[in-house]
Amino acid sequence: MASLKDLRDRIASVKATQKITRAMQMVAAAKLRRAQEAAEAARPYSQRMAQVLANILSNVGEDDAPRLMKGTGKDDTHLVVVCTAERGLCGGFNSQIARAAREFILQLLAKNKIVKIITVGRKGADILRRDFAKYMIDHVNLHDVKTLGFTHADAISSKIISLFERQQFDVCTLFYSEFISVISQQPTGLQLIPATLTKEKSPATSDSGSIYDFEPDAATILDDLIPRNLSIQIFRALLENAAGEMGAKMSAMDNATRNAGDMINQLSIQYNRQRQAQITTELIEIIAGAEAL
Q: Is position 90 annotated as part of the catalytic site?
């Protein structure tokens, strides 16, 4: 049985931990608002970019479409880009993304496909390295990045395009977590190459019905927009991850704070009972000694 001093020390330790978890919850809540606004602001832009590309694609034949859009025509080699957080203490946020990527990779390996993995974020790399270390070809470290910018996504996009131009893979799939709410983040897999766009059958028109003319030509415009769209989709994934991480961390720290409070109550009850028992024992000894005299 723990002594009264041990119980006092443990109560003080749990109280100190509770202060830390409460502070981390408040920091995550402050960061969540900015991260959520950034993620939600990026969604319309990325969706509109996909619509524009689909619109232009309707005026381009299959032979004239860029290779980034139509791919190599094979699916033998797959590049899997897994985006997670750099830090932990955010519940199952990182493990959920890694689990979705792991299931996808295992399905590819079961079909005898060649798999190559690029990880973005230290936590995902640590999880996947246990089973797929030999398939990991690169890692992007964002540990020292204070504010995510488009340049970070563009650098990742450049790596992917460089590998594609060197014919290192046929299909590229991006895994990240889509932010839904503070308590809900949805692991998502998005195919980047070949681009998954719905090809329109009607002439290129705007929402108002106006007909577009392309200058210099649709194929040349696609050559410029497809790499840009790749960077935009990756940037959106990074922003969604940032918002999801803060939401998951806020929820996890709130649970930790509540659990610490419950533990303090239990330890306090145990301490008071043991202290009362000790006082009762001392009184009994005093009374017994007095009667003996």
A: yes
